[in-house]
Specification:
With 566 residues, the chain is of the alpha/beta class. It folds into three domains: 29-262, 3-Layer(aba) Sandwich (Rossmann fold); 272-412, no CATH class; 443-558, no CATH class. The chain has helices at 4-27, 31-43, 53-60, 75-91, 109-116, 122-128, 131-134, 139-151, 169-186, 209-215, 231-239, 264-282, 308-323, 329-332, 346-350, 357-370, 388-404, 413-434, 443-453, 460-484, 495-503, 507-525, 531-539, 545-555, and strands at residues 49-51, 65-70, 97-105, 156-160, 194-200, 223-228, 248-253, 256-260, 336-339, 372-375, 380-383. The protein has an eight-stranded mixed beta sheet with strand order 1-7-8-6-2-5-3-4, sandwiched between helices. It has a three-stranded mixed beta sheet with strand order 9-11-10, sandwiched between helices. Helix 17 packs across helix 18 (413-434) and helix 18 crosses helix 22 (507-525). It starts with a helix and ends in an 11-residue tail after the last helix.
Length: 566
C-alpha cells in the first residue's frame, strides 16, 4: 500500500495537471504573453540551492532594488511580498523602504498619495484610478500591503504605464525602468533605502525589465530578483522532503532567488477562478455594481455569476478520492454555499428557523474571523474570505458530516468543546492534504505570544490574542494531567478555558483543534502515525461523550508535551 506521502504527491500532481489545463482553457493568452513566458522559462535554472530565511534576508539587505515576481490572482503571492516588507522593517530595522507597485499607473500618483494620507476614501480612490478595469485583481489581497505602508509611513509609487495592460509588455518594461531609475536617484542620498517593486513575474526574465534597467545605466549589482512558486521547484522539493515547510527559500543563481509558499495547483486554480469571475462580470451588461464593488473584494462575485458549488464540489471529490470513499451524488451535493466579504449571512441563517439570534451572531463572528464556517445543522458553508484553503477546510468538515452525521454541538459543554475541536482538526487535516504549506499556529507560538506580552498592558486585538493564547496553554497543561492519570470523561474544563471559549464564540476549541490536526498530519507524514488515523478521523462517528473523549486522547498522543506553565 502506498504511503500517505505518496498518496498526497499523486493527488497533488493530479490537481496540478487539471488546474493548469483549466487555467490555459480560461485564459487564452496572447502571442505576446506566450513569447514572454518562454523567455521567462529560460531564465529558470534546473539547479538551485536551498537557503534559510536569514540567509535570504542577509543577501537582500545588501541591495537597493528588489524585483518581486507577483502572481496577481494568488493571495499568497501578495502575502509573501508583505512578509518580505515586514522582515525588512522589523528584523532588519530598515528605516527607508519604498514600495513600488505595478497595480498602479505612475499617472495615478496624486491619487495614491491622497489615499495614503487619508485625504480620499477607499471607494473614492478605487473609482479615481479606475481600479476594476485598469487592474481588477482582488483588492483586499493588495490592500493589506498599502495598510502596512500606511502604518509605517513607507512611500508607495505606481510604476505601470499610462495605458497599463493596453500597452505592449515591452513598452511597460521601459516605462517601469524609467520610474525605478528616477526613484533611485531621488533616494540616492539615503544609503539604507531599498525599493521593493512588485510586478508580474514574466517581467523578471533576463531580457525584459532587468535588460531595460541595465539599458538605463543601472548597475546590476545593486539589484536582486525574487521569483515565487515556480512549479518545477515545488515538485522537486516535495520529492526530497517528508514534510513541506510553510515557506522555503531557494537561491537559483547570483542575485536571483525563489520563494515557495503555495502548491502550484492552488496557484493555477486561483488564476482559472479569477478568469471565470472576470468573464462573468464582463458578460453581464446589466451589472450596476460599478468600480466600488471591488472594495468588497469579489467585484460582482456572487453564487449567481460564479459557480461556487462546482469548485467546492471539486474539492470534496478530491478528498473522497484520496480517502478511498464513495457515496451517492445526492449525499455529495446536499450543501448550500455562500460567499460574502462582509459576512452578510444573518438573513440566510435566520431563514432556516433553526437558530437563536445569539447563535447566529456567534456563527457569523466565527465566519468573519476564520474566513469560513461549516454549519452542520443546515449543511451550509459560509465564506467571508474566498480562498482555496478556506474552501478545503469547509469541504473536509462537510465530508465528515455527510459520512458520520455528527454535529459539532451537544448538551454537555465539555463534549461541545471537543466536538468543535475535532471539527477544527478535520478542517486542518483536509486543507493540509490539499495544501501541505497551509500554516497553523503551533503551541510554541502561543507560548511566544504570552512571553511577548509579559509585563505589558495589552488592548484591543492584542489583548484578545493574549487571552486565547493563555487559554490554549492552560488547556494543554490541564489535558496532559488528565491523560497522565487516565482520567474518565472530564466533568468540566478549567474556568479560564470555558470563559474565553464563551467570550470568543469558540476560538479556543478552534485553536486546540488546529494544533491537533496539524500534529496528526505531521506525525503521519513523518511515519510516526498510521494513515488509518486520518481515515478514522473522517469516517468514524462519535455518538457519546466517552467516544469523543476517547478520540481526543488518541489524537493528543501526537501533540508535543513540553509547553509553558502559566
Amino acid at each position: 500500500m502506498a504511503s500517505l506521502k505518496q498518496q498526497i504527491t499523486k493527488l497533488q500532481i493530479s490537481l496540478y495537471e487539471k488546474a493548469y489545463k483549466d487555467a490555459l482553457r480560461t485564459a487564452g493568452p496572447s502571442r505576446e504573453i506566450i513569447e514572454y513566458s518562454k523567455k521567462y522559462e529560460k531564465t529558470l535554472p534546473n539547479k538551485y540551492k536551498t537557503i534559510t530565511n536569514n540567509e535570504f534576508l542577509s543577501a537582500l539587505q545588501q541591495k537597493r532594488l528588489i524585483l518581486y515576481g507577483d502572481f496577481h490572482a494568488l493571495r499568497q503571492s501578495q502575502r509573501g511580498f508583505l512578509r518580505l516588507l515586514r522582515d525588512f522593517v522589523f528584523k532588519l530595522q530598515k528605516q527607508s523602504v519604498i514600495v513600488a507597485l505595478e497595480m498602479f499607473r505612475s499617472c495615478d500618483q496624486d491619487a495614491i498619495d491622497r489615499y495614503m494620507t487619508g485625504d480620499i476614501s477607499e471607494a473614492g480612490f478605487l473609482k479615481k484610478i479606475n481600479y476594476a478595469h485598469e487592474w481588477g485583481f482582488f483588492w483586499p489581497n493588495f490592500k493589506v500591503i498599502l495598510e502596512f505602508a500606511k502604518e509605517f509611513q513607507l512611500p508607495v509609487i505606481g510604476i505601470n504605464s499610462e495605458q497599463g495592460g493596453r500597452d505592449s509588455l515591452k513598452a511597460r518594461d521601459r516605462h517601469t525602468a524609467d520610474v525605478l531609475v528616477e526613484t533611485l536617484r531621488k533616494y540616492q542620498a539615503e544609503a539604507r533605502s531599498t525599493i521593493f517593486a512588485m510586478l508580474g513575474e514574466y517581467h523578471l526574465a533576463d531580457a525584459h525589465l532587468p535588460a531595460a534597467l541595465k539599458g538605463q545605466g543601472m548597475d546590476p549589482a545593486i539589484m536582486a530578483r525574487v521569483l515565487t512558486n515556480i512549479d518545477k521547484y515545488y515538485f522537486n522539493l516535495r520529492e526530497n522532503s517528508l514534510n513541506a515547510a510553510s515557506s522555503e527559500y531557494l537561491k537559483l543563481k547570483k542575485d536571483i532567488y525563489c520563494v515557495i509558499n503555495t502548491p502550484p495547483w492552488i496557484k493555477w486554480q486561483s488564476y482559472a477562478i479569477w478568469e471565470e469571475m472576470r468573464a462573468s462580470d464582463d458578460a453581464d451588461p446589466d451589472d450596476t455594481e460599478g468600480d466600488e464593488s471591488y472594495t468588497s473584494g469579489y467585484g460582482s462575485y456572487t453564487e449567481y455569476t460564479f459557480d461556487l458549488d462546482y469548485h467546492f464540489l471539486g474539492i470534496v471529490k478530491n478528498l473522497t478520492t484520496f480517502l478511498g470513499i464513495s457515496f451517492s451524488a445526492t449525499e455529495m451535493t446536499s450543501f448550500r454555499i455562500f460567499a460574502s466579504a462582509e459576512a452578510d449571512f444573518f438573513k440566510i441563517l435566520k431563514s432556516e428557523n433553526m437558530f437563536s439570534n445569539r447563535e447566529i451572531s456567534q456563527i457569523v463572528e466565527r465566519a468573519t474571523v476564520d474566513g469560513s464556517y461549516f454549519v452542520s445543522r443546515c449543511l451550509t458553508i459560509l465564506l467571508s474570505d474566498l480562498t482555496l484553503n478556506n474552501m478545503a477546510t469547509a469541504a473536509g468538515q462537510y465530508l465528515h458530516h455527510v459520512l458520520t452525521k455528527d454535529l459539532d454541538e451537544a448538551a454537555d459543554p465539555v463534549e461541545t468543546f471537543y466536538r468543535r475541536a475535532i471539527k477544527s482538526a478535520i478542517g486542518m487535516v483536509a486543507s493540509k492534504i490539499l495544501n501541505p504549506r497551509r500554516k497553523c499556529t503551533e503551541l510554541s507560538q502561543f507560548f511566544n505570544i504570552v512571553a511577548h506580552h509579559k509585563g505589558k498592558t495589552s488592548k484591543g486585538s492584542g489583548a484578545k490574542k493574549l487571552r486565547i493564547a493563555k487559554a490554549v496553554l492552560k488547556h494543554h497543561e490541564w489535558i496532559l494531567e488528565k491523560l497522565a492519570s487516565n482520567h474518565e470523561t472530564p466533568e468540566k474544563l478549567p474556568s479560564i478555558v470555558s470563559k474565553v471559549e464563551r467570550l470568543s464564540a469558540g476560538e479556543v476549541s478552534l485553536a486546540v483543534g488546529q494544533v491537533i490536526g496539524y500534529q496528526l498530519y505531521a506525525a503521519v507524514m513523518g511515519g510516526r502515525a498510521s494513515p488509518s488515523n486520518v481515515h478514522d478521523l473522517f469516517q468514524e462517528s462519535l455518538k457519546s461523550s466517552e467516544e469523543v473523549w476517547g478520540r481526543i486522547k488518541d489524537l493528543y498522543r501526537f501533540v508535543p508535551k513540553k509547553t509553558a506553565v502559566i
